[in-house]
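Re: Re: token formats

Sure, here are both.
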Amino acid sequence: MSAAGERRPIIIRRKKVVHRHHGGSWKIALADFMTALMALFLVMWILSAASPEQREGVAEYFRTPLVTAITSGDGSAQTRSVIPGGGPDPVHSEGERARIDMRTQTRPSEVQRNFFMDLQRRIESAIQEDPELRHLRSQLRFDMTREGLRIQLLDTEQRPMFDVGSDRVAPYMRNLLRTMAPLLNELDNDLSIGGHTDSMPYAGGYRGYSNWELSSDRANASRRELVAGGLDSAKLLRVSGFADRVTLPEREPTDPANRRIELLVLFPDVSEQIRRPALLDGPGMPSPAARLGGGDVDLAPVEAFAESLRQALGGEAALEANP
């Protein structure tokens, strides 16, 4: 056979395919997803077994901004877990549940907030329905404080609430207070009344009748009008005067709006603190023996003071220091 007729050998080349490892990143993603899903179901199960107070505490935790929780000092930043715990059963927890309860005492709960908002709406509605009181709506301020719902009755040059330099209540102020009295009775919360004045002083300064007496007298006059309007006198916990020491923000001390009456619908825990103030013992506090006048207490300073007082009074005062 000729060279042209020779057959060439058929060469078969096989390509070797190497199956490389694609990695396990998808397994990590799946594991993260399953962990998050399990955590979600766990939280839902715990919340379904929690009481309404515990759920309110958890909701309040998430409503608090992080910066506020850290800097406000209300204890919310000290909570290590947002889920009630500290015991085998979240419903019967002790440690974390106590922290949540302490935190909610410093802020209004959703129920308290709703009660106060309803009270505000009722007061505004009653004023709006009365043609004689309708023009006083602009002199009312409602806001929430750490002590409770604050209702401020502000003075103006056109419609002063009291006679100038007196505690005599103007007729429309009297009607306003007596209209609000039965509405304040609808809540069980105690009431605090505070009187404020502007910085215009009396001729005698603070030696005689001054803004201190005027603010206290006006607060007490407001108390009498509320009681006359039907307010339960047992709800009154505090009546005080602040003179011109607490001015409104961004107002001049002489601004007429500083002449105002504050009605505070107190939170229950604030009322309890006013009734039973906590006593602190520490450095600088007298010991029980000193408070009772017993024990090894040095009475020399007391005797020296009594002797100097005798000499100052010319020996007419009969003062004795009982050891």
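Second one below.
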Amino acid sequence: MSQQNVNTAAKESEETSALKTGGQLSFFDMPAVSGTVDSTASRSATVTAMPSLSAEEARREFIRVFRQTAYYQNRWNVFRDFITLAASELDMARIRTPENIASSRRICSQYQPDDLNNMKRLFCLMVEALEGQFHDFLGSVFMELELGSSEMGQFFTPYPLARLIAGLTAGDEQQQQLKTCPWVTLNEPTSGAGGMIIAFAEVMLARGLNPAEQLLVTATDIDPLAADMTFIQLSLLGIPAIVLTGNSLALTVNRTRYTPMYYFNNWEARIRLYERIQAMRAFLS
């Protein structure tokens, strides 16, 4: 399910955005060597060159490639830049905006050609790791790379624990919500890398429900890096979500992103229709 959603997302995002502007897309389109490079061919070559890997194999390879990337840069900065580029790649609403293009160019200008190629490979490995398997890939590699900060509280719950908690608590909540609404809503005020949300969706899937159709997530984190990690993983796993970078306590939002599945399953129209039906029922009662 997830890989089909990702492939569809990438194709439709590129086709839709191509109607708006002819500019560069993202770091996949940044030439890794001097001279003109055909971006479509470059992207296809990067993706198709990847052998099929298990999630564990992809995780190990991701760690290995990351440790060899941009040794002249701070490790946390490299990870942050990769996450920023990857999130921009999946943001259908902004992928070709001047701001997004300028941001990608600024980040890419700080890296050597081989390191940009490594970042493209890291993106492909991340997709491979999340293909068909629900787990907190980015949270786990972040902790394995020892990038957490005690000052920022950047420690992510191990996914087996998140899966256990979701299995114990999510079932009754899901069934109760589905009695009154066609979908389950999940609000995560401190999303981290999205591990608890992913575990919740996995429990739904195990119980015969379809998260792509029956789950709508609102995820918030005050840390832009964590919010981007959540956005990336929910996008690649085909989970409809509104991902906010902001402060849940102060009710402030700096950025709002929608995962590709939010657009593909027309959630905005579905929400409006449901609200109208509810208003009509209230009027008639």
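Confidence is low (pLDDT under 50) at residues 5-25, 32-49. The CA atoms of residues 69 and 118 lie 6 Å apart.
- S.
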